[in-house]
Amino acid sequence: MSAELSPAEKGKFISARRAVDYVQDGMKLGLGTGSTAAWMVKCLARRVQQEGLQISCAATSTRTAELAKSLGLDVRALDDLGWLDLTIDGADEFDPELSLIKGGGAALLQEKIVASASDQMIVITDPAKEVASLGAFPLPVEVIPFGAMTTKALIEQMLTEMDVAGREVTLRMAGDKALRTDENNLILDLHLQKIGNARELSLMLNQIPGVVENGLFIDICDIVVIGDGAGKVTVKDISDGSSHTEAVTVTAADYSFADPKQ
Ligand SMILES: O=C[C@H](O)[C@H](O)[C@H](O)COP(=O)(O)O
What we know:
Rossmann fold; globular; alpha/beta
């Protein structure tokens, strides 16, 4: 029997399981990265096994690919699948327009490529990540290693010129070394406090030489599924502005997979 989940973890599980309801036989899927996405991969693998669904998947990180393969999912290269039907992924923040900050797990580049190649993106999340305005979560920016400190200085100069509230930029570390992404790049975290114009900031960042991509996802997410550890799930759909809340029951057997290690 699995140990009782914390309310936060139960919320993640609830949102992941609900989002997997959107998966249909024959779909080509994008699999996100992170602790919430890991629950989704487990729930998906269970559905595939129980219902014999024929689906193929493109993963957004090495760790998600490894998890999905270990659970028997058919994982292919994105270029072998072409256009995807649906991507399900986590997020670090989302706002009322379903704009997102992603990249807390350093997978933003593959995540953005995969989500942008999908008919639909569903974000799975918990209530703590809902914000009126993006920016409390540090904005991850993936940069190439060559001249990374020069790129950092260019970003700081741009933030000053844009008069953004916070301007601290830090190099993300993994222990005593700079963290490397799956593409062997670096992550700069922008501690901005509040992002006024996310669209403008995203465009400006991506014009700086050395920046590969930033963690702002604008006009990409279609649906957010918010799992609440108290046993509720809220589904917000940007296409029609609808929002509804469902009561859900969760037993320990429902989440008795091996612990997600992401
Ligand atoms: O790079 C990682 C991703 O953008 C994650 O989806 C995001 O950080 C959310 O992760 P978690 O579900 O672990 O909070």
